[in-house]
Amino acid sequence: METTQRVEIDGARVQSLLDELHAIGRRPVGGTFRGLYSEAWREAHARIKGWMAEAGLEVRVDAVGNIWGLVPGREAGPPIVAGSHYDTVPDGGKYDGQLGHVGALVAVEALRRQLGQPRRSLAVLAACEEEGSRFTCNFWASRAITGAIGADEPYQLRDFDGVLLADEMRASGFDPARVAEAATNEIGAFLELHIEQGPILGRMADAAGASAPRIVGAVTAITGTGRLLVTLTGQPDHTGTTPMPGRRDALLGAAEVALALREMALGVGPLARLTVARMEVFPNIPNVVAGEVRFTVDARHPEPAVELQLMESARQRAHDAARTRGLECRVDELWNQPPVQMAPALVETVRQSIAALGYRPVDIVAGAGHDSQLLGRRFPTAMIFTITGNGGRSHCPDEYASPEDCQAGVEVLAEALRRLAY
Amino acid sequence: METTQRVEIDGARVQSLLDELHAIGRRPVGGTFRGLYSEAWREAHARIKGWMAEAGLEVRVDAVGNIWGLVPGREAGPPIVAGSHYDTVPDGGKYDGQLGHVGALVAVEALRRQLGQPRRSLAVLAACEEEGSRFTCNFWASRAITGAIGADEPYQLRDFDGVLLADEMRASGFDPARVAEAATNEIGAFLELHIEQGPILGRMADAAGASAPRIVGAVTAITGTGRLLVTLTGQPDHTGTTPMPGRRDALLGAAEVALALREMALGVGPLARLTVARMEVFPNIPNVVAGEVRFTVDARHPEPAVELQLMESARQRAHDAARTRGLECRVDELWNQPPVQMAPALVETVRQSIAALGYRPVDIVAGAGHDSQLLGRRFPTAMIFTITGNGGRSHCPDEYASPEDCQAGVEVLAEALRRLAY
After folding, report:
1. Which residues of B touch A238 (CB under 8 A)?
2. CB contact, 8 Å: A273 with chain B?
3. b/e map of B285-299 (b: 16 or more CB within 10 Å)?
4. In B216-284, which ranges are continuous DSSP H helix?
5. Of A201, A192, A152, whose CA–CA distance to A342 is shortest?
């Protein structure tokens, strides 16, 4: 095992940068919103660029607004990159995305100051967009980097006010015709520090007690997400004049499926999720039996075959419920984003870095989407998860990560970068 | 048993009057809409008044727009009244309400022509409003007749466009300050012929076969309707990052209740109805566990004690589901309209009239609201139900009653009126 040369991380600086960013796009009530190419986004963009320059990094902004801060290494070759996104959801919290690029900046700064020039090049990436909260274009940053944005997309995507993405790009100083230039192969490995956005690590920490070593997550995979739209059609009879037997009640069919899918997921195991969370009832009148119900099924599992099996089982279950209740059933697949496995060697580096610092490494599957999802298909990629407070709540103003957990996460990131680049 | 002197009913005239009315307020696509005090309503009002006058009835329009057509009897005393409402729901069919006042007109006309002046006075009532489809004021006619309309109501009720009921009253030639003058005690008995608006009589007829005697319903009671609003509150967690165990999913709670209430109603018996037909999910986003679900419970039974028990059981069931799923539960009673028993002697007259004409009398409970519901609390009241085609569909353009069933209903009404008034 490698020796550990502990890199000192300025936790207070991490917090102050997070606070500074959180104020940009802050709403009078609630959280922060920095949609892609919005005014708040531009302000954050300039601020982050400034921080990187002050830290002595070689700053480069690519064609879509990703900010790269390079520390050239002694050897040739693509840099080891660490970062995350700087956009936010509406009423977003302080940590989602931000901890990843702020943490990378503080970690790389500390490494350079304390250990000098690295052997391999290092880079901080502040990615322009991941959330899909303004335009229906999520993973804009990582799709641009991997060359996955169509040339016409900037001229088609509009925000909820009808504003064209291309116009907002131009207003932000970018040329929508040059999006393709953001594509690059110059990533030797990608490390993303992120809050878990779920309750798993926190529950383990609670179970272990306050005196146990702090838990940090080593992400082994990003779960796959399948999305189905189920439409059950029955008959909108009068609730008073129509006896219970013989009704074709679409709402009861949907209720049966929602309950059954929960049991199905529990039967498959702790990594499986099947959720009915959006439901529309027609005509949705108290005294008319539901004639039609449309609901979504959100199916997740980190193993591709299991994820596909969950979707197929959900589809079957909907058809079964329809058959026994005299309903028509239509199932549309809205999308299927297959799981992504993190690079095993990098995950092992993360685990060892956590342990070397006296923390407790816990393998975990990422349940939500991340920049690492797309970058992980092209470059060796791993993620570090920190405990998320308030039961794991995220995408809301009361998203929380303790200063101690933030600091531990940045320490682990720095240690992993040290092992990879020095 | 009384002898039957068969009154000849002109079924073709019934159909042609129904057709004429159906054209007033007809939409280019779909059914008819004659909201209270609308232009279409005014046209129908004038037309019906004309028909009554042509038939030689003494026509009187009361303070809210109910049209009364009197045939004075030889003896003093309040008239035997037959009728129903002439307003319609949006996209309404040809029969709901209309068969009752058109049938009463044709029946009274035939009685007078064929049997001369009655012993007791007879009256046709074309009631101005029952559906509550334009203003939130259903039973406007029968509430006016029973003196149940508050003096300020015309100045408070508005339609969906914000138009004040008082203004539309004035535009229709009525004085909103004089609503109270429509109240009357001059009803000796009330008979309402109506389509069933449900599948029960039709299913019995199908089971009996084409050669069996035609079925006509003798309504014994109008079901009571309780309406609850249940709010289940859980936690809006991320569907990807939150394991299935430990979720507080409000949608699953609602699903459990909806399914359980159906079983509960089936257990109570064929007259019980418990329906969840309106459901709103928050935030209603595919990847956020339902944090709150609000749904209505529609509870019906013709026996007051059972109806109350259904509501109480539904309330309990919602609280039980909430408890086991870690949800908060709030149940609001939106209203409770107790059942109304029809007058036993009048129901018996209806039964005997059906049988005397060679039809098959079937006792039935009315599952929807009717003018008879309010009038039945003050005056001896009974209803005659005819088979409704298309599986009992109503409040829609494909509402249907066969000419033969319409004719049988009007014949029964005429025979019952003969027995009561001659």
Report:
1. 197-198, 367-368, 392, 394-395
2. yes
3. bbbbbbbbbbbbbbb
4. 250-268
5. A192
Cα separation, A248 vs A191, in Å, equals: 53
C-beta neighbour count of B274 within 10 angstroms: 28
**Are the Cβ atoms of B240 and A227 closer than 8 angstroms?**
no
Pick from B251, B277, B280: CB nearest A276 = B251
What distance in Å separates residue B280's CA from the closest CA in chain A? 8
DSSP string, B341-352: EPPHHHHHHHHH
How far is Cα of residue A399 from the mean position of the Cα atoms in its chain? Answer: 14
ipTM, two decimals, is 0.88
- Which residues share a beta bridge with A360? A215
Three-class DSSP category at B293: strand
- At B1, the pLDDT band (50, 70, 90 cuts) reads very low
**Coil, helix or strand for B1?**
coil
Which residues does A372 contact at the CB level (< 8 Å), separation at least 6? Answer: A190, A192, A219, A222, A340, A342, A366, A381, A382, A383
Asked if A255 has any chain B CB less than 8 Å from its own CB, the reply is yes
Cis check for the bond before B283: say yes or no (omega within 30 of 0): yes
Residues of A with Cβ-Cβ distance to B222 under 8 angstroms: none
Q: What is the DSSP string of A313-382?
A: HHHHHHHHHHHHHT-EEEEEEEEEE--EEPPHHHHHHHHHHHHHTT-EEEEEEE-S--HHHHHTTTS-EE
CA distances for B298 relative to A133, A285, B104, B336, B370, angstroms: 39, 10, 32, 10, 17
Residue B304 makes CB contacts below 8 A (sequence gap 6+) with: B224, B338, B339
Name the DSSP letter for residue B84.
E
Length of chain B: 422
**How far apart are alpha carbons B410 and A359 in whole angstroms?**
87
Task: Tell me which of A238, A307, A387 to substitute to probe the interface with B (most B C-beta atoms closer than 10 Å).
Answer: A238
Distance CA B238, CA A393 (A): 8
The DSSP H or E segment spanning B328 is strand B328-337
- A233: its two tokens: 């059609």
pTM above 0.90, yes or no: no
The pLDDT tens digits of the residues spanning A243-293 come to 999 999 999 999 999 999 999 999 999 999 999 999 999 999 898 999 999
